[in-house]
Each structure stands twice: as structure tokens, then as C-alpha cells.
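Re: Re: C-alpha cell formats

Sure, here are both.
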Amino acid sequence: MNGMTLILIGTAFFVVAYLVYGRYLERLFGVDTSRKTPAHTQKDGVDYVPTKLPVLFGHHFASIAGAGPIVGPIAAAYLGWGPVALWIIFGCIFIGAVHDFAALFLSIRHEGRSIGYVIEEQLGYIGRLIFLVFCWVALVLVVAVFALLVAGTFVGKPAVATSSLLFIIMAPIFGFLVYRGKMGLLPASLIFVPLLFVSIWIGTELPLDLVTMWGQSAVWVKNFWIIVLFLYVFAASIMPVWMLLQPRDYLNSYLLYAMLIAGFVGIIAARPAFAMPAFVGWAADKPGGGIGTLFPILYVTVACGACSGFHALVSSGTTAKQLATECHMKPISYGAMLVEGLVALMALVSVAVLAPTDYAEKLIGEGKIVAFADGLASFTSTVGIREDWAGVFFSLAISAFMLTTLDTATRLTRFAWQELFLPSAGHERDAVSPARRVFGHPVTATLLAVLAAGYLALSGNTGQIWPVFGASNQLLAALTLLVVTLWLVARKKNFWVALVPMVFMTAITVWALMNLLVRNLDGDTGSPALVVATVVLLVMSMVLAVLAVFSLRKTTTTQ
């Protein structure tokens, strides 16, 4: 097997799935292009903004992609490239993309509210509150993980810090010209997309190396960047979506498109042969020590590369509030997840060409992001692109998307907290108490999210938080699929498309969380904060499962 064959097989599966299964889901759920979307009916110019397909696809894709589909498959590759590739392909088609599509659809039919609010229809007001708390805890883990990843990249590759700051400065200018200055999207793109690549060159020429400039340790500088990042996401969370989040994500999406095209062409041209075995057994030694197992660790390690609960929060958090028409639903939700699967396959290929010993040394010494960037750079060198330049570009592109995930996740954490203080369905016109107004205010909600995630980021490390993040992320997907299953059952539709993935994801993630709980209870190497987070996630998921059983019994007895 070589990389070209795997990429072509994966692409063929994804194209057929989009045309056939994606169309089936549109008919099953009842997509109606004549209905007005919440972006029109709830339009407020801050969160609810009708958005053109290319811009919204860029925002959505940039938000869900991040480093997840890169870090996960690379981290799981020690178990063999075969199981990882199979999980990415079939997980994306039948679980991840279905999950993303259903979450966006249900949110659209509930005034653009988050999947946590939608759950009240099936599990009641208490179920909604529990689910929103679950979402909030899971999102805090997401924010902490990506703050660590971005800050670490800023220290390891100072050119990324320079370019990222330039991206942030460019975004509001682009947003103002397009949304307030009435400049067309095409002419604005023709100006700012080239500037985006110019900022990458500036970053390589003027790297913001604070370790050298300030004479401080790498740990000190990393913590400094974490604080700066949290100040940035605090501001980004409460600003109108058109001013920063949307234009930055749109512009950054061109980096990912360029990375995808260059990587795809490079893999096809190079035809890299795999040195890593396809299957090494049901358990294997991890590169950093310890033992990893095919069940359940593989699935929660690959995480976003096949299915991600975080995507439901993006779909029902920011994307649903910007969808201009329901005909955009399939390309933005189902399609974007399949493209993310392609990114995951490319990440797998980038390390599958390494011998097991070289793979372990690279991950321990340089990290997963560098392994991915170096792998793609070596492939693209076969088509005449300088390997050193390509390596810098790929690293910068990945870092830009990690920053995108970071600020989107912070905004979603704010949404989840605010919805905790909304009245129950049917009582929206009731007077809101002063306490609800204070605790549900955007500034309060964002501040609490930043403080909680900042504590985790400054007291932990990516290696500790990532497994718990991966498991909680997958469990969140399982709970979303549970809601979708109940919705389909209540309407006498084919609920198996959601039930089977839900049962599988629930079993795998609960199993994984129990293993992680035992590991973090270790007084020497464990993390008390992660123990608390894991226990909270497990308890809430069990309560929601019980509520779902009662809801299902009630539904079936009344039909």
C-alpha cells in the first residue's frame, strides 16, 4: 500500500457518500429550500447574519477543522495505519457527517438555538440544563487544549506568532469593507487573500521570538502567550460575528484549501510507500510510554478525524445563525466533514511512511504538527516546491486553524452558558430575573469560560488534557445522536441512521472515560481537575441516558 492509493480510495468513498447518502439524509430530514432560516427571521447583525455559501463554508470548515483531524490520526498511528484509515473513512461517512448534518438541521428548525436547547423538546427542561452543563465542560476542555497547542506553536515556531497577529489585524478590515463598506466579496478576496500569503512571508522574515528577545525561558513565554490568547478570545467572543470571527475564518480557509491541494497533489506525485505496518495487534506500545489499545483508545484518539461532538456545537452555535438557505445545509455540514476526513487521511499518510522507531522519535522530539508539516513538505518537493518553504507554510496554516478553533470554541462556550439562563420552551416571554440577566450576560459568560479554561491550560499540558478532551468530545457526539434518534422516532422516520452510531459511540466513549478516570486518580501523574471533569461528564451522560429511556417509552406508548 502507498499513500496515493489510500488517498484515492478515501476520496472516491467520500464523493459517492456525498452524492448518495447526503442526498438521502436531505430527504429523510425534510430539507425545505422555501423555508426562511433563522439568519433571516432572527437577524440582529451580531450573531444572526445571512451569509453567502463560500464565506459560511470557510467559517464552518475553519472552525471544525483546527488541529483535531491532524493530531488525532497521527497520535493513533502506532496502532497501525489500517484501523485508523478504516475508522476515518467509514466513521466520517456514517457517523461524523450524519451527526454534523443532523445537528445543523435541528438547530435550523429551532430558531438557530444550540443542540442543548433543542434537547428540551425530547428530554425536558432538566435534560436541557444537564446537557448544556455537559457542553460547557466539554467546551472548556476544547478551549484549554487549543490554547496549549497554539501557545506551544508560537514558542516553537515564532514565525507563526507574527503571521497570526497579522491575520487578526486583517480580519476586521476585511469584515468592515465587505459588510459595512459594501465592497463585493470577490474584489475584497482578490485583495486580501494575496495579503494573507504575504503575511506568511513577513512571519518568516520577522519571527516574534520572545524567548530570544526577552531572554526568558520557553515555559515562561508559553504561559505569556496563553494569557495573550485568552485576552484575544475574550474580545472575539463578544464582538459581532461579521467583525472578526467570520472574516478571519473565511480568509484562513484559503490557507487550508492551499494546504489540501498542495498535499493532495504531492501525495499523488510522490506515491509514498508505507513503512508502518497496517495492523500491529489489539494493543501496542505508545511512543511516549504506556500501552494503547485498539478498543477503545483508537476511536477517542482519532477523535475529530472521524466524528466530533464539537462539530454539533459549531453547527448549532454559529453556523445555524448564518445559514442563508436550507439548500446550503448539505455542502456546509455533510460536505465539510468529508473534507475534514480527507485532511485526516493526509495526516495519516504523512507518518505512515515512517518506520515505527522513526515515528516514535519524531513524535517525542518534534511533535505531531511538525511531523505532519514535514511529511507533506517532503511529498510536495516531488513537484518542485522547496521542502523548507513548504514545511513553514504547512505549519503556519495548521496554527491558523488552531487559533480559529480556539476563538470559535470560546464563543460557543459563551452560548452554552447563556442558554443555561434562558427560560424553558414556551415561556420565552416571561420576565427574566436580575440574576439571570447578570449571569447570562455575554461578558459574564465569556469571562467564566476564559477563567476555567485558563486554569486548566496553565496547570496542565496537552498530553494530559487531550485524551479526556477526545473522550468527552466523542461522548458529546453520542449524546447529540441520542437527541437525533429521539427526534426521528417521534416523527416515525428511519431512526437507525442515528441509533446505531449512537450506541457504538456511547459504548466506546464511556469505556474510554472510565480508563482515563482510573489513570488520572494516580496521585503522582494524575490531574485532580481532569478527575473532576471526567466524573462530571460521566454522571451527566448517565442521567441523560435515563431521561432518554423514559422519553422513548413515552413516545412509543403514545404512538
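Second one below.
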Amino acid sequence: MPKGKIGLAFRGLIVYIIYTMSFIRKIRKNGKTYLAEVENRWVEGKCVQKHIRYIGKEADGRTILSSSLSDVVVDEVKLYGPLLVLNHLAHKIDLPLMLGPRASEVLSLVYAHCLDYKSVNQMERWFQRTDLSLLLNLEGVTEQALLDSLDTLESIDATEVQRQIFKRVVEVYGIPLTGVIYDVTNTYLYGKRCGLAKLGHDKEGVKGRPLIQVGLAVTKDSGIPVCHKVLDGNIHDARMFQDFVTDLRPFKIHRGLVIYDRGIASSENIRQTQAIGWETLCGLPIRGQLAQTVREMAERNQFVQLENRVRLRKNIFYGVVIEHRMGETPGWLAICYNQPQQRELRESRYDEIEQARDLLVQGRAHKAGMEKYFTAGGRLRKNVLAEAEEFDGYFCLFSTTLLPLDQMVRLYFDKDLVEKAFRTLKGVTRLRPIRHWLYNRVTAHVFICYLAYLLLSLLQYKLQKHEITAEEALLELDSMYKVYLRDDKKGFKVSRVVTLTKKQEAILKAVDPKILKF
């Protein structure tokens, strides 16, 4: 047979397969909508529709089956509502197109991290309780298939994919790019076989755990993630920020304000940030020449004055702004003072010193680090105490652009958006502890958590006019099941979503009114 005829015959086969499949047809008659199962067949070159059976009718948007209740059997009940929302958010930004050949398996892990995370070896059972097979066009998952999907993430350029995702998020949601907040956390691994995990400064103060460092940048106003970076656990925060600045260049965010903590601040980081067109607002540790500057200002007692007063929620700050240089970069330094914090820090320290002194008298062990306050004979070293409490209640902020004092304070202390992101990563999305030990699976696990946080932050963005968090919304939708019904006598199956509550309907409407047509 000629090549052209082979192609024509193949297309004809496809048409035949499609048109001999049965489907449900809505028939409108006398103002009513009836449901019938029909089948299309090709007869002598024409498509002829054959009626198979009457199923029921629709009334008030609900399906009324023709069967009696005794004939209908509940085949399955599947988790549907939260997954419908997460899948909608993922497809809205074309996420499946960016995640490689195993995107469906990857997304099943992402959704699980948002809802009811199970370890990979328990995912198969969780998957069977959900309607993901329909939403993701995925027959099922196995532990090996999920591990393989983690391995496929190694083949994608993570920085480029994050850039594409963020670009699409900005296009779809119109996220304002007025600034970025950056911070670093670390998380620990089970076992010690991963080359990425190293002993370092554990931010939770626990010693002996192998760590990895995770740097995260989010938008200043909405907390939408921009990008993340994973490095060895013994890399300093300031060094990680240099890598972040390098990774930020392809994002082509040309202007804005980057805000970060004092542990990251350095003259080199500030210089690099300016090189990509960004201004800096950061905390500075009080030491060296800066300590002398603060000391002189404190001795003049120039802080506690009405014109220097800034209220931030329940806190009162007093501060002054002076010119300052970080290396070769000129800017402005805000020296601030918080009286209640000073008193709280000192009283807490005094409590610890008194407790340590009592334990010393009894010959018992005391809190580590308290020995510096005592002589060998157990007497208090007042000079050491004075040195420790000198700058209690004081903090310093540096900005490369001139900002009013109240704005500097608010911007810096409202950077808890990224801290909330870390709490979500470590809590809701189960970033820690990491049970993988292969390098690529560790980074893939963090990437999965990052994507889960992305979807949660987009959901929160859509719910900003409602007094409900993304986690609460997903929990509210948890009772939105899809029920599969079967009538063995008449030989048909039908599925229905349980009736929505008003709160569930409001959540879906906030995400996208079109989603109500599921």
C-alpha cells in the first residue's frame, strides 16, 4: 500500500475508535435536561448515534438517577476538593509543561506535601484515596516511579525553571516587583552518607546533625517565592547570598529593594546587589567601628525623643539616621533603640546568671556559656556582664537609598514573610527531616517542597480578601469528595461531587469562578 494510503487508513482507525466509545449526552426537552448514554458508530461512511440507555435527568444542577436507591452502589469515594484547587493553580501557570517527562508524578508529590505528606514508600496508598488519576491523567504511582520522577528533576536546569515559573506567575497574577526579601535556613538529614550534608551552625542550636543550607527569596509584598538555592551545610550565609545574586541576574528584575538579615550583610554583598540594579536594606552586627559609633550616640542620649519615635504594632523604637559607608558603598545608617527589649534581655540574662550561680554552689552542671560570667572562685565578673549588656536593645540598619526612619524599621521587621515561608517549608510541606541521601534526590526533595510552597503562596494570594489562610482553606475543602456510583442492573457508572458548603463555594470562587463548573 502506498505511504499516503497507509496514513489515511491509520487516521480512519483513530476516528473509528473515538466514535465507537460511549458517552453521556444531555438531551433538552420541554425545558428539562435528560441524560442518556449514547454511542457513535460509522455506518456506510456516516456517523450514526445509537441510544444505549436512559440514565436520569438534571435538576437544579444535580443529577437524579433513574435507578432506585437499592440498585445504586457507591463504588469509590475520592479526595477531590483540595486537589482540584492545587491542580488548577499549577495549570494556571503552566507548571506541568516545565517539570519534564515525569511531571504528573512530580506534581503528585507536590500536592501530597501541601496536604497530607507521606514518605515515598507510603505515597501509593495515599494516591489511591485521591482523584489524582483523573486530574493528572495518571493510572497510578509506585515507589519506584516516584523515585524515578525525583531523578528526572536532575536533568532540568533548576535556576532556569524557577525563572520561567516566576515569569509566568508575574504574567498571570500581576505580582508587583517592588522588592525581594532573602534569608537562609538549614535543615538536617537522616544518616551521614550524603556528600551535600555537612556539620555547620545549626540555626536551631542542635549539635551533631548533618545539615544542608537553603537560601530563599520571596517578593516583599506578597511572599511569592522568586527562587531558592541549596548548598553544603557549612557554607556561610554571606557566601550563599553571593550565589543568590548571581542566580538572580537571569530573572531580569531590574530595580527594587532586597532586604536581608545581619548574618548575611557584607560590603561585598551590598556592592554585588548594586551591580544588578538593586538597592539594599539590611541589618548590621554591632561590632568594630560601628560599636564605637553606637556607643558615642548612646552616651549623648539622643534616642528617646518624640521626633525619633516609631511605633510598629506593639513595639516602640527610637532611632536616628546618619550617613555611613559599607566599604566603598555610601548609604545611610539607622541606629535604633528599644527600651522594653533592653529590659527583657537583661532580666533574662540575670535569671540565667542567678540560676548558674546556684548550680555552681551545688556543684551541678549549668547552662553552656555561662561560665564566662564567673571567676574560678565563683564570683561574678562584672566587667564581662557589662560588656554583654552594653548594646542590649540596640540594633543597626543600613540602606543604600535614603528612606525615612519609620519606613526602614517597618520594611526590615516586616520581612517575616520569608520566615513564615521557612515555617511553611519545614512544617506544612515537610522539608525536614530529609530521608534521602543521594545528592540529586536531596536537592529534588527541596525543589518539591519549594513548589508546594509556591502553590500555597498563590492560594494565599487569591484568598487575601478573605480571613482564611491557605492551609485552613485546603482543610475546609478536605470534605469535598467525589463519589463514584454504579448501577449493575442498568450497567452504567456516574460520578458526583458532594454538595458544597457556602464556605467551600466562597473559597473556590476566590480561586477562580470557573472552577465551580467542575
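DSSP finds 18 helices and 16 strands in the chain. Residues 230 and 261 are 18 Å apart (CA to CA).
- S.
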